[in-house]
Design a protein that fits this description.
Helices cover 26% and strands 28% of the residues. β8 and β9 form a beta hairpin. The chain has a single domain (11-227), classed as Vaccinia Virus protein VP39 (Rossmann fold, 3-Layer(aba) Sandwich), CATH 3.40.50.150. With 229 residues, it is α/β, with parallel strands linked by helices. The protein is globular and about 50 Å long. The protein has a 9-stranded mixed sheet with strand order 1-2-5-4-3-6-7-9-8, with helices on both faces.
């Protein structure tokens, strides 16, 4: 199957509402989710009842409200979300966008697909793929999103370079991530936490204009980075 914004060398097959990458010998490329797909149906409850109040010391409803305010006037855009998870971006994005999601968990993707359909998104494409090498052409997207996942990705700079590659000029990356200086309760948060200054340095290195989004919600930092010409 071919799509206009896919790299020429990429082979994909659609299976159970998901786009799966194929190797040169037509085998589906598989990935191992860090939690495993067995936990997919419990993911939202874990986030709401455990991760947000106990780890982030934050409020999940405030989280959605902050992001909805940020995307309130965003319509008819080509948007890529890195680490779609269970599809909670459906709660704050407009359903008239062209949505593309990347994740390695087929279980979470099935949960995500149901949310997007229930909220009447018309153009949704979900790709089981790795963020270190995004399967899309250069200059394909107006906006890229990564919520609560950037600190889990192994090589931040490789991911940022890929984000730069797939964004159009003046495209914007929007993210939320826990940072150590906001972790006032010193809770144990898995992953590699970078400070706001470190994140700013990473993005400026790749010609992004870094801007903090001025909200306070526990250990979470909200920020956006515009790709400069």
């Amino acid at each position: 199957m071919r799509m206009n914004n896919l790299k020429e060398a990429i082979n994909i097959v659609e299976k159970k509402n998901l786009y799966r990458l194929q190797s040169d010998d037509n085998e589906i490329i598989k990935f191992k989710p860090w939690l495993g797909d067995l936990f997919s149906c419990f993911y939202d409850r874990i986030m709401e009842k455990s991760i947000f109040p106990k780890k982030f010391k934050a409020n999940i409803q405030s989280h959605f409200k902050i992001l909805k305010n940020e995307f309130n006037d965003t319509h008819n855009k080509d948007i890529l979300e890195i680490a779609t998870g269970s599809g909670n971006s459906a709660y704050f994005l407009s359903n008239d966008i062209n949505y593309y999601g990347i994740d390695i968990s087929t279980g979470l993707f099935q949960e995500a697909f149901k949310k997007f359909i229930n909220l009447e998104f018309k153009n949704v494409k979900l790709f089981v793929a790795n963020v270190d090498s995004l399967p899309f052409n250069d200059n394909s997207f107006d906006i890229c999103i990564c919520n609560l996942s950037l600190f889990f990705l192994k090589n931040t700079e490789i991911v940022i370079s890929e984000i730069k590659r797939i964004l159009k000029t003046d495209g914007v990356f929007v993210s939320s991530v826990p940072v150590p200086e906001r972790n006032k309760h010193n809770t144990k948060i898995r992953g590699v936490l970078h400070t706001e200054d470190e994140l700013k340095m990473f993005f400026q290195k790749y010609n992004f204009q870094f801007e903090r989004i001025p909200y306070v919600n526990g250990a979470l930092l909200y920020f956006k980075s515009k790709l400069l010409k």
